[in-house]
Amino acid sequence: MRERNKYWNSPEKEAVLLYGPLPSLAANTSGTKGKIDPLCVRVVDPSLFTVPYCEALVGALEEAGAEVKLVGRPPRKGETRPRIPFEPRFYRRSDTLSRRIGKPGMALKALEHCLDATSFALSALPKGAIAHFQWLPFPLADSVALRLCRRRGPVVVTVHDTKPFNGTPTSKLQLHGFTAALGLADRLIVHTWTGLEHLVASGLDRARIRCIPHGPLGGFEDVPPPPETGPMTLVAFGKIRHYKGIDVLIEALAALSREERKALKVIVAGEPMMDIAPLQARVAATGLGGTIEWRLGHLGEETMRDLFTEAGGFVFPYREIEASGVLFLVQGLGRWMIASRLGAFAETISDGESGRLVAAEDVPALTEALRECVRFRPRPSGAVSVQGWDDIAEATLATYREALLQWQATHRGKAASA
Question: What residues does the Glycosyltransferase subfamily 4-like N-terminal domain cover (predicted)?
Answer without folding.
Answer: 53-215
